[in-house]
Amino acid sequence: RADDAEYVRQVIEEDQQHSNDNYAEDDAAYERRQQQQQDAQERAAQDAADRKASEREQKFQAELDRMNDDEAKNLALKQKKKDGRRVKSVLKAFSKQDFYGVLGIHNFSIKTPQIPINIANVAKFTIPSLSLWKGPTEQSIKKQVRKRAKQLHPDKNKDGRAEEAFVALQNAAQVLGDPKLRAQYDKERKELRSEQMETGKRLVNTTLASTLAVLRKILQVCQTLLGPFFVPVAIIAALII
């Protein structure tokens, strides 16, 4: 009976393990399907944007061909080049989730440091820090959104991807125009910058440590080969360098 009970227990454990494996496979398959669907949607959206951009470029070229005045053509081409730079700048910033960059502004503040004053141990006081620049305000953001909208509106901007840039502007304005969403966005960006700085520091430290380790090995080999002549040779080499 004891053997029978042990056998039953093993069978139950095997069934349970098999069931867990199936659940794990189902979860992995579901995640793969979700990722595939997301990738397909992104490709479809990009294809649609590419087609729209191509249509707009063809439309502009047709308008250009109908112009008889060379000066008007040159002005139109010059304006389109300017429009293209704006659109490219906006899309580049949006791809990095830099919503302030989409608006064409920077989010930073400038403060003077506190200055302690000690006059012969008689008078001691501290000059407080002063805010020279507090960053964009809610009003300045709204003003910049309106300005940017005029520059990027597809009816005025002749670049092929003006519609993409205009949608990017709307998305950025939706976040930065809401105080709560903006505060959350600023917090996440600050955390991201801190993580990037820490990653950069670790990379520099790792590279430096590896370089120093290689140099130590080279010096050890040179010292072994040169023996008592190592120090004079090292001094001469340093003087030559």
Q: Concise description?
A:
The protein is mostly helical.
Please describe the structure with a list of short key phrases separated by commas or semicolons.
241 residues; two-stranded antiparallel ribbon; Helix Hairpins; 4 strands; extended; mainly alpha
Walk me through the structure.
GO terms for molecular function: Hsp70 protein binding. Residues 12-58 are annotated as: Disordered. The structure is a single chain. The protein is mostly helical and 241 residues long. The protein has a single domain, classed as Orthogonal Bundle (Helix Hairpins), CATH 1.10.287.110. It is built from seven helices and four strands; from the N terminus they run αααββββαααα. The strands form two sheets. A two-stranded antiparallel ribbon has the order 1-4. Strands 2-3 form a two-stranded antiparallel ribbon. A hairpin with a 3-residue loop joins strand 2 (115-119) and strand 3. Helix 2 (70-95) packs across helix 5 and helix 4 (138-152) packs antiparallel against helix 5 (162-176). The chain starts with a helix and ends with a helix.
Give the CA-CA distance, first to last residue.
87 Å
CATH architecture: Orthogonal Bundle
Number of domains: 1
CATH class: Mainly Alpha
Percent helix range: over 70%
The number of strands is: 4
Strand content: 5-15%
Main sheet: strands, sense, barrel: 2 strands, antiparallel
> Looking at this structure, what is the CATH superfamily?
DnaJ domain
User: How many helix segments?
Assistant: 7
For this structure, the CATH topology is Helix Hairpins
* Rg, Å, rounded: 32 Å
Identify low-pLDDT runs.
none
Return the average pLDDT rounded to an integer. Answer: 82
Transmembrane segments: 218-240
Pfam families: DnaJ (PF00226)
Domain J: 98-189
Protein name: J domain-containing protein
